[in-house]
Specification:
CATH topology of the largest domain: FAD/NAD(P)-binding domain
Structural class: alpha/beta
Shape: globular
CATH superfamily of the largest domain: FAD/NAD(P)-binding domain
Number of strands: 48
CATH architecture of the largest domain: 3-Layer(bba) Sandwich
Helix content: 25-40%
Number of domains: 6
Length: 950
């Protein structure tokens, strides 16, 4: 309702200033009338012109009349003017699309338009492009058929790709069994290209591809990854690395120096040197180049049009403390335009940009918004179920395994089914309109969607029903993709039979569905932020500047968190002035109530309306709030090795930063310094990577070299993880003379005091000798460990991962939402991250929380428990409920006092444990009643009575 989507469009100019920009947009002709196009695909089917398919990275061909992919938004075809025969050659040529289009949607009179928009803020999020290695003959790309880029191989693996996930060697069409990946192609490279940075994502996508490949090849095949450093710096990425190793993925720390065609021109032959100096020649069926990320092609042009500055690598220039602010006020940067980043970081970054735009435009909030309305619901009382079954092909995700046409034919035979059909993508805009048309024409009053997960798509189909005046809870979904097609790809016949069982069960339940009514809860326009570090204060300021009263709760006696002990950012920006300003802004903000020596004692209610008792300074106060941000932080662990605590020359990172801040002359006077990485992390006790340490050590080493160029500085590391643009620090450190020595867990450094000397011994893999370093300073990269949040987890019924960090709702698509609605997470309490990323995540959390607080009421799901007349107050359900949503009450019954339970609908999550525990049918869950579940069970067993409407 509030998004105007312009495709085939580009910005041509931005004029004005923050709060009052005029944006000019060039909208290119589509040559197809979007109102008439029904996405039937006949234009593409009849088009004779084949061209390279950009979406499939050039590994397939498409027509000049095309959609990029099956779930394109909007799902409308377009004609490529650069390759269309009629547009290129003129009158009388081709016109096959126009001749065969059943709706007359082809419009060759379509013209380019120039549009102007008056906006208050601009967010630039043009993404990135993949590095093209075709100009580097060393890799053999484009000359050796069996050398592919990571993006090309990704499309080959995809069920919707050119070979539908069935791996093929381009040279022969045979299944490859021995595949190699070469890392850092187009990244960490200033010899063959100018990309000195790390692309952040390549190590992980190579591992993912290797593990997925194992499932695509009979017998699993053999996968080898050649790398310099494995950069598994994200949340649980190290676990993934360990899992890949356990699965038999070979990791070889080497850089192949010769890549040639394999025997007979098939496959690839490589030569490389192992770490112990041996020269190896090895043959592979296929080689994948893990190509990095580059700034978008039009970055320079976009910067000129908008007036922003770019970094030397052509990414948008942003600030360390303002990670989504461009150099021009009012223009914000979203996603990987700010630099290479993975999906969770990009999504959080984009939410942060949206939040900063909302913050800037708070005075104009709700002046242009539109609210969606629905027609009154039809009264279906007394009507027999008339069910429509809609089977989704999901492109080839389902149709490649399940016989969807046979499934449709089967659905038509089921009792109560009045209509059944197949859709290419049931979730597409076009399919939704078609679904609405069928509901009206066939007078359907129940709908079964055989497609994917109801968790992701049920709200969409509910909305379509509501638009037709039908209660949204009269739809039932059968998950024939995730629960069937995806896991039974090698057994299509059995998968089709299972899909029939799933649809039969869904139809049986659909006959028992009844309308439900959603609850409305007034939203309290106040927020709660737990944690007074940089992330917590950033979130509080983001919410307060949007106009929401905010209570900030910090358990210690002062604000600032770990940042109080930090010296500079990776960019060299001093942290203390920024921190002091942030603390002042929080303390002086009229809408922030900052409480120190405080803690949250409890919480009741749900999204939109929570209540908590907060203890602060010996007093307890009760507050109401609509959303909360948990920025609980983390701590530096205390090392139990390397003489820490017994020798005053041994520091942790925070201790060293205090030294650099308070007595920098002492540090500068040292003749040598040694940094040891991964102290207490990436081991059995703490299997995660603490992410911050490599960059911090490299930056600290550079600071020492700048203060004393003659100082000998060593960094002992396992994998150097200066990801993203921080790779420049690693390069600068090597050029400045910092010496890097790699070690592994089997050969950890040893530290001893010998007389007055502090000696570090370590095995050097280059010289193949154990060396001794006499050092004046020893800095340990101690692990980052989560703070104890057990009390908050119990209060809010949220969750942590196995390492104790707070969990998000979805690691990629909802990286700041928590599983409990109305709760958001930010900062290193979720996982270790540098200050810039913590601020970005906090701003994203404030943006997401603000979207709730901006609503006058919240509409809660109607799947809630309901007490029936059979309840006798035994209270078994009360003890079983994990959300404290049930209480015991008393009432008068036949002249005496009787007990029964009562459900708080706002707290109830519809989990069904109460219904399962109740021995008498005294409580049920709407949408999952005993009768409905029995209908499904009987249908699964193919019992006739299951198909009878109640």
């Amino acid at each position: 309702m509030n998004i105007n989507l312009l495709t085939l469009s580009e910005i041509t100019g931005v004029a004005g200033e923050a709060g009052d920009f005029t944006v000019t947009v060039r909208k290119k002709p589509r040559y197809i009338d979007m109102d008439k196009c029904i996405a039937c695909g006949i234009c593409a089917e009849k088009c004779p012109k084949l061209v390279s398919d950009e979406y499939n990275a050039g590994t397939a061909r498409r027509k000049s009349a095309y959609i990029q992919y099956g779930q394109t938004v909007p799902l409308k075809y377009a004609i490529d003017p650069d390759t269309c025969i009629f547009i290129q050659k003129g009158k009388g040529k081709c016109l096959a699309c126009e001749k065969f289009c059943p709706t007359g949607a082809i419009n060759f009179q379509d013209k380019e338009e120039l549009l102007e928009f008056n906006v208050g803020a601009v967010i630039l999020s043009p993404g990135h492009k993949s590095f093209d290695p075709s100009g580097i003959d060393f890799y053999g790309y484009k000359t050796i058929p069996d050398v592919l880029t990571g993006l090309e191989y990704e499309r080959m693996l995809s069920p919707s790709g050119p070979v539908r996930g069935h791996l093929e060697k381009p040279s022969s069409g045979k299944t490859p069994e021995n595949i190699a990946w070469i890392q850092c192609v187009g990244s960490r490279n200033t010899n063959q290209c100018d990309n000195g940075y790390c692309s952040s994502v390549c190590c992980m996508y190579a591992m993912k591809q290797a593990l997925v490949t194992e499932t695509h090849i009979p017998g699993g095949g053999r996968q080898t990854i050649f790398f310099m450093d494995m950069r598994c710096h994200g949340k649980e990425f190290e676990l993934y690395y360990n899992y890949a190793t356990e699965r038999g993925i070979r990791f070889i720390r080497a850089r192949p120096h010769t890549i040639e065609p394999g025997p007979g021109g098939s496959g690839v032959a490589m030569e490389y040197f192992t770490e112990d100096g041996r020269k190896v020649r090895e043959e592979f069926d296929l080689t994948v180049l893990s190509t990095g990320l580059e700034a978008p092609r039009d970055a320079i042009d976009l910067a000129e049009k908008t007036g922003i500055r770019l970094s030397p690598y052509r990414f948008a220039e942003t600030g360390g403390f303002e990670p989504v602010f461009s150099s021009k006020e009012g223009i914000y940067i979203g996603g990987s335009f700010a630099g290479p980043m993975n999906i969770p970081t990009a999504v959080a970054n984009a939410s942060a940009a949206a939040g900063q735009a909302a913050r800037a435009l708070v005075s104009a909030r709700n002046t242009l918004t539109k609210q969606k309305t629905y027609p009154p619901e039809f009264n279906l009382t007394g009507q027999k179920p008339k069910i429509g079954v809609f089977v989704c092909s999901c492109g080839v995700n389902i149709a490649a395994t399940v016989d969807v046409n046979a499934l449709v034919d089967y659905a038509k035979t089921l009792p109560g089914v009045a209509y059944a059909e197949n859709n290419l993508f049931s979730c597409s805009t076009d399919a939704q309109k078609q679904l609405a048309d069928v509901i009206r024409k066939q007078n359907l009053n129940r709908v079964v969607i055989a497609a994917c997960s109801p968790r992701t798509h049920e709200p969409l189909f509910q909305d379509t029903l509501m638009e037709q005046g039908i209660n949204g809870y009269l739809v039932e979904m059968a998950n024939i993709r995730n629960h069937n097609a995806w896991v039974h790809q090698k057994n299509p016949e059995q998968a089709t039979q299972k899909a029939k069982d799933q649809v039969r069960m869904a139809v049986a339940k659909a006959q028992t569905l009844y309308p439900l009514e959603r609850m409305e809860v007034p939203v309290v326009g106040r927020s709660l932020v737990i944690g007074g570090g940089v992330a917590g204060m950033s979130a509080a300021l983001g919410l307060a500047d949007q106009g929401y009263d905010t209570v900030l709760v910090e358990h210690s006696g002062e604000l600032g968190g770990n940042a109080k002990n930090l010296h500079t950012t990776a960019r060299g920006e001093p942290i203390r002035p920024m921190l002091d300003k942030m603390i002042r802004d929080v303390q002086n903000h009229p809408k922030i109530d900052a409480l120190t020596n405080a803690r949250v004692l409890n919480a009741t209610g749900s999204v939109g309306h929570f209540e908590s008792d907060i203890e602060a300074g010996g007093e307890t106060r009760r507050i109401s709030y609509g959303a909360a941000v948990l920025a609980t932080g983390a701590s530096e662990s205390v090392p139990d090795e390397y003489r820490y605590g017994t020798d005053d020359r041994v520091y942790t990172h925070l201790g060293f930063d205090r030294l650099m801040t308070e007595t920098p002359e002492k540090a500068a006077a040292a003749g040598s310094a040694v940094f040891i990485q991964c102290v207490g992390s990436r081991d059995e006790k703490r299997p995660w990577c603490s992410r911050l340490c490599c960059t911090h050590s490299v930056k600290a080493a550079l600071d020492l070299k700048e203060k004393n160029p003659e100082m000998d500085v060593f960094i002992l590391y396992r994998d150097m993880r200066t990801y993203g643009l921080n790779e420049d620090l690693y390069t600068r450190a090597r050029n400045a003379g910092v010496l890097f020595i790699r070690y592994d867990l089997e050969n950890k450094p040893q530290v001893a005091a010998e007389g007055d000397d502090l000696i570090v011994r370590v095995f050097d893999p280059v010289s193949r000798k154990k060396i001794a370093i006499d050092t004046d300073l020893l800095i340990l990269a101690a692990a980052v460990v989560p703070n104890n949040v057990e009390e908050l987890v119990n209060i809010y019924r949220c969750a942590t991962n196995q390492d104790g960090f707070l969990n998000e709702a979805h690691p990629k698509l909802r990286p700041v939402d928590m599983a409990a609605d109305g709760l958001f997470v930010a900062g290193i309490g979720a996982y270790p991250k540098p200050i810039g990323e913590s601020i970005s995540q906090a701003q994203a959390a404030a943006s997401r929380a603000g979207a709730i607080l901006a609503q006058p009421v919240m509409h809660l799901d109607a799947i809630k428990s309901h007490v029936t007349q059979y309840c006798d107050g035994c209270a078994i359900c009360l003890d079983a409920c994990p959300y404290d949503a049930i209480s015991i009450t008393t009432h008068a019954q036949n002249g005496r006092t009787a007990k029964r339970v009562e459900t708080d609908k706002a707290l109830c999550k519809g989990c069904g444990i109460c219904q399962a525990a109740c021995p008498k049918g005294g409580i049920l869950v709407h949408g999952f009643t005993i009768e409905q579940l029995q209908a499904q069970v009987h249908a699964a067993l193919d019992l006739p009575q299951a198909m009878t409407a109640s």
